[in-house]
Amino acid sequence: MKFIFALLFLSLISPSEMMTKMTDTLYIPDKKISVQGVDGENNTVRLEFDKDKKILVKTEKGEKSEIKFADMPLFLKLFFFTADKTAPESLVVSAKSISGALHAAGINTEVSTVSASEYDGSAVLAIGKEKRFVMANVLELSKESMRPVTLKIGDETFVFSDYHRSQLPLAFPGNIKFFKNGALQGEWIFLRDEYKQK
At 94, which helix (H) or strand (E)? Predict the structure, then answer.
């Protein structure tokens, strides 16, 4: 029965509407967004995004780099964008910008289907697939929250989880895992203190 409702829901919402809902759920009102965590080897990772300047400053293993929005890695563009809820149309503009970046990376942003995450089995809306078992570049959004769960492009996969435990609750993943050809390559952890392992 749930699957039938999921299919009905999907038939009522287009991939572009999914992207707009995603940007709405990930929206952070601050003009400067900052998160700090660690990588899998406990090295500090800091991400600071200035919405006005459209620049991300990434500090990793003591190395600082400035990245313009246009050059930002796709998986970070999902979370750092310039929308402002005082101008609601800016959410649509940001969603179109992210959708364009997904399309440029090889995701067919015109098609979607209900699927299941291969990492935790949760129900997802898969942008980039017409059918559940088709192999394709894809952005999977949680069916419940509309937040990114998985981004898969070519042999690279990014898995996003622990939103409810992150420094910015419900808006930023507490954990980002990086895979290449199915093998774990790295991890960033942005958990609040009460969720960190002692």
Answer: helix 89-104
